[in-house]
Design brief:
single chain; mainly alpha; 65% helix
Length: 126
């Protein structure tokens, strides 16, 4: 799946928690979010600097990043759940990240694991 295809897929499946998402879809959407956060921070920093001082600039960056985070929270969570489905696990496995010290590492390993066979969540998506 290409960069543009994964963005379109994640946005079109805004709140779809059923089905599967291949590795490429999840990680391309993750990269898109990182890039967009940078763009939002720069734009809002410029706006804050023009209309205020350093404190206004920082405040506008926080507001901009907060609004962007609210906009992509549901699609990000949905693609994460679909990615876990692709590995044959329930979306509830996301909460493994709450385990101290090793939870995030475990979740990362689950997210990079690929699956080419059919499982209870359907056929693989390419």
């Amino acid at each position: 799946m290409t960069f543009a295809d994964s963005i379109k897929s994640c946005i079109s499946k805004y709140a779809t928690f059923r089905g599967r998402a291949p590795r490429s879809e999840y990680w391309w959407f993750y990269l898109f979010n990182i890039l967009m956060q940078f763009v939002v921070a720069v734009v809002f920093a410029f706006i804050g600097y023009v209309f205020g001082d350093y404190v206004g600039m920082m405040l506008s960056v926080y507001i901009g990043l907060g609004l962007y985070s609210l906009m992509v929270f549901i699609p990000g969570l949905a693609v994460l759940v679909r990615r876990l489905h692709d590995t044959g696990r329930s979306g509830w496995w996301y909460f493994i990240c709450l385990v101290p010290f090793i939870g995030w590492i475990w979740l990362l390993i689950l997210l990079v694991t690929d699956s080419d066979e059919e499982n209870q969540y359907g056929l693989p998506v390419y």
